[in-house]
Design goal:
5-stranded parallel β-sheet, about 15% strand, single chain, 5-stranded antiparallel β-sheet
């Protein structure tokens, strides 16, 4: 008998009388032991679940043992960082859910003894709060994992809406629309941008409507012609159950409805008149068929027949609060395949993904997650593991000057003046006369602006000092200059007066080295 087996037997004798659920995993995440309190909590006999592999995901696929085993998996980084706490939980066969806090303690092994992981489970269900324990702090990714499991279990009780998880108003509105489409059974068109998961939602509605699963006949409206449309509709009729057979929902799924040519639109409209209630009509489109009909771009009667309910898929940029959950979902879908287990993305990487505009929608997000996981060597995806295109976008955003800030006009003008004067002084090696020429200003006016804007620096050696009160052509004091005024009280403004800090006339234009344009 191996030392690992003897150690398990020793631990089992010590832990059998524990009032708290306890179980042991080996380094392959295989459940090697569970005590009687664990069996009482899960409702599973130890002989059924021992030997099951625990993968870190929140999916609902597989039998009851597989689903419970997935809910028991610790955060994958536990084998790297040592003891930590995390949320575990699952849905029982009776539909009830449980969620508890568990403390995971690695038990180091030797060359002849595989490592074990001891899991000590809280005696009672707990709320999903990061402050449920004082130390150690729960990993942020485990919080996402627990929230994702909670959402998927709540949705899975009715339909499979994996890609619609999220807490944003857009996600909640979308789930309400899909729920109405499922419950009513009327024709539905799913509208949204390419890559947003239109076909996924349509197939979800088909599965949710079916009391017993019938077939689904997809038609690509971009390539279908009259003959192939007839063939597809004939196949639909043949797939309907015969009299005396159990009822089954059969769906006709029209993909990219806006690409259906006018001839096929009329042909489809005539054939739909013969379709009975046992056929579920589903369609996807980039734009609302009813809106297209109002613009004269689609047959109104067909649009009305196919879009009794329109489900509008929001753009991913409009539900950026859901990016973290969707990213965790896509990562855990890879975990569910039983290969290398990942905990999630570091907060800096999640922040970058949440800010990205996602022109390719959910399809692009899925590709980014897949590539990031492939690049990652550990259990946490970092910024450096993200695709080069995402990192380059983030760097460009960091270099860009923000333009959406609130600005006061006078402050903005003063800031631009400072930048122009500073650049001219630098280019002229702090020679005021040359800087004034570059800016197209008189030297006296430049000196006044330097003092007003707080740019008064010691003059360069050899640059003569000229008092700002000296009259110069074009200055406000020049009685014959372009800014002369009939009111003598306005011809000699004090440079320290508040009004002098901001002038209403334009001050600068782009200039070359040889001309004065101010």
């Amino acid at each position: 008998m191996s030392r690992a087996r003897s150690n398990i037997q020793f631990l089992s004798q010590s832990l059998a009388k524990s009032p708290q659920p306890v179980y042991l995993l080996d380094d392959r995440r295989i459940l090697q032991y569970c005590n009687p309190a664990f069996s009482e909590w899960t409702g599973l006999d130890a002989g059924l679940i021992q030997g099951a592999r625990c993968d870190y995901h929140s999916g609902l696929d597989g039998n009851e043992v597989m689903r419970i085993a997935a809910g028991l998996c610790p955060p994958p980084e536990v084998f790297e960082v040592g003891a930590l706490s995390g949320w575990i939980g699952f849905r029982r066969a009776d539909g009830s859910s449980t969620r508890r806090l568990a403390h995971f303690v690695p038990l180091s092994g030797t060359a002849d003894d595989a490592s074990l992981l001891l899991a000590i489970v809280a005696p009672h269900d707990m709320e999903l709060k990061s402050d449920s324990v004082a130390s150690p702090v729960l990993p942020a990714t485990n919080q996402l994992h627990a929230r994702l499991r909670e959402l998927r279990h709540a949705l899975g009780a009715q339909y499979r809406l994996d890609h619609l998880v999220g807490d944003s108003p857009a996600a909640q509105r979308l789930r309400a629309q899909v729920s109405a489409a499922v419950q009513t059974g009327v024709p539905v068109t799913i509208c949204g941008p390419v890559g947003a998961g239109r076909e996924h939602v349509a197939r979800t509605i088909h599965v949710a409507r079916a009391t017993s699963h019938g077939g689904i006949i997809p038609i690509d409206c971009g390539i279908v012609d009259g003959a192939s449309l007839d063939a597809a509709l004939e196949a639909l009729q043949r797939s309907l159950p015969d009299a005396g057979q159990p009822p089954a929902v059969v769906s006709l799924l029209l993909l990219d409805l806006e690409r259906l040519n006018s001839e096929c639109q009329l042909q489809l409209l005539r054939r739909l008149a013969t379709v009975g209630p046992e056929v579920s009509l589903l369609a996807t489109a980039g734009r609302s068929p009813l809106e297209m009909a109002r613009r004269g771009e689609f047959h109104l009667a067909l649009a009305s027949a196919l879009a009794v309910i329109e489900v509008e898929l929001p753009r991913l940029v409009d539900r950026q609060d859901d990016i973290r959950l969707l990213t965790q979902l896509l990562l855990e879908q890879q975990n569910s395949r039983g290969q290398r287990q990942m905990s999630g993305f570091v907060p800096e990487a999640l922040s970058l993904l949440a800010a990205y505009p996602w022109p390719g929608e959910l399809d692009e997000l899925s590709q980014v997650v897949n590539e990031s996981v492939a690049n990652c060597a550990g259990s946490m995806v970092g910024v450096g593991d993200l695709p080069a295109s995402i990192r380059a976008w983030g760097q460009a955003q960091h270099r860009m000057r923000p333009v959406a800030r609130r600005m006061v006009y006078d402050d903005a003008v003063a800031e631009l003046q400072r930048e122009l004067i500073a650049a001219a002084l630098a280019r002229s090696r702090n020679n005021r006369a040359k800087a004034a020429k570059l800016l197209g200003l008189s030297r006296a006016r430049l000196l006044r602006l330097i003092e007003q804007l707080g740019l008064d620096a010691p003059p360069l050696e050899g640059d003569p000092v000229i008092d700002v009160e000296v009259d110069s052509p074009g200055s406000p004091r020049d009685p014959h200059g372009p800014y002369a005024t009939a009111d003598p009280t306005l011809s000699r403004p004090k440079i320290d007066a508040p009004a002098a800090a901001s002038e209403s006339r334009p001050l600068f234009w782009e200039v070359d080295d040889g001309g004065e344009h101010g």
